[in-house]
Every structure is written in structure tokens, then in C-alpha cells.
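Worked example 3. Consider a protein that binds D-MYO-inositol-1-phosphate.
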Amino acid sequence: MITDISSAYGEICSAALRAGQIIAETSPENVGVFKKSGDANFVTESDIRIQKFLRSQLSAACPEAGFLGEEDDGASSSGPAKYVFIVDPIDGTSNYMFGLRLSTVSIALCDAERGRPVAAAVCCPSSGEVFSALEGGGAFLNGKQIRVSDRKLQNSLAAFGSTPYDRTLAPLHMEILSDIYSSCLDVRNLGSAALHLAYLAAGRFGGFYEMRLCPWDYAAGALLITEAGGRITNFSGNFPSLESGDSIVAGTPAAYPEMLGIISSHIK
Ligand code: IPD
Ligand code: CA
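Given these inputs, the predicted complex is written out as C-alpha cells:
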């Protein structure tokens, strides 16, 4: 039983920072790249190396917790446990492969019974930023408390992901994007869902959406958003599933209902 979530939180923040250093220190030209299933879906030797590192660090700190990492292909490596680490060793693998320095390490400790993240960190090594959150304790950027902005969608930048691994959704995605673009200041896709959510928590974006993400893409970001005063749900308005993939919409208190309204108008 994990009795001390706050000490697990400390381990998560330090593991995210050290994993981020591995991203910063490796040169993507020198690492092997392999294709995964789906469109434009890759894994590099660094993804696998960092996931191994995180598994050993986090499992040593909290041996009773389960572990679900992207590079396990969605299969949890342990039996049922009350708490589970949900980990993306590199969110933004394509960014990493092409030398765009916008990749993150995303770690969440989740209460599996409640389906909620309880402690989380997202590290962006190129900017030296660690976004973190503890359930009921607030959200932080390098230790300083952060809040979502109070802006409406029309006064905000909105982020989106293009669901690159499933091109069959492209027409629907483009319809939604067109309406969101018309309703905000401008749109951005930085190529890392965890980074989009972290930036939203820090007040940089007003909204974010992407269809068919996986739990490791948003488990940590979801806690950042809620602890920073924002809203995040699936397209039905429920908290995103941590057991299977989900489509995500998030925003400031003012922008979230506008984002969900636009999305709902396109979903039959
Ligand atoms: C991807 C990134 C990207 C998003 C994809 C994700 P990965 O994660 O978050 O921004 O558009 O849907 O799968 O594969 O780089 O870990
Ligand atoms: Ca990944």
C-alpha cells in the first residue's frame, strides 16, 4: 500500500527530470528508429531506454504500484494494483527524431480504483521546465504554483493534435479545427500532447483537443489541468479513461465549454 503519495510525488518529479536529461544528452541521429503499428508511428532506442530507466526508478520507490508504459504496447506489466504508474518515456517521438526540441517525459501515479491521477510530472528538457501536480495540492512549474488563464477562447491560442496514427479521422479533425481556428486567436500543434496540456495548465494555451489519445499521453497532463483550475474531459464530458484510450478536450473555465460545444456540433 502506498501510504505516502507526497513522497511518491517527489520521486516522480526527480525521475522525470533525470529522464529528461537522457533526452537532452542523446543525439537522435545516433539512435535506432523502429516503426510501430499505425500511420507515422515510431519508437526509438531512447524511448525504450528511458522507459526501462523509469520502470526501475519508480518500481524501486513504490514496489506495490503497477506500471503501464507506452512501450509495453498498452499491456500493464503487473497484475491488478490499487496504484499504477502511467508513463510516456518520450511524448513527441517524431519531434525527437527530427531534432525539434519539443519532447517531454510524462509520468502519472494513478489511483486505479477511482480512475484518477494523484501525482504527476511532465518534463520538457529543452526548456528546463518541470510541470508537476499533486491531487488537492496544486500545480507547479519548477516549484512555482501555476493556474490556467481566465481567457475565453476568442482571446486565446488553442492547441490541437492531429491524431497522426489514424489518418481515417483526418476529415473530421479538419472540420473541427476549422471551427476552432475561427473562434480563437490562432492554433498550434507542438507535437506532444503532454506539452499541450502542461502549457494549458501554465496559462499559455486556452484550449486543447485531440481524438483518440492513449492514457500515457494525458494521464499526467490531466492532473496538471485540474490542479491548475482548468477542465479536461473526453468528448462526452466525462473524466478521460485511464484504462483505455480516449478523445480529449481541455480548456480554461471559459474556453472549455466553447471547445466542447464546437466539437459536439461535429460528432453525430
Ligand atoms: C504523440 C504525441 C502527438 C500526438 C499523438 C501522440 P508519442 O505521442 O503526443 O502530439 O498528436 O497523438 O501519440 O507517440 O510521440 O508518444
Ligand atoms: Ca511516446
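Take a moment to read the result before moving on. The chain has a mean pLDDT of 93. Helices lie at 5-25, 45-61, 93-97, 170-183, 193-201, 215-227, 255-266.
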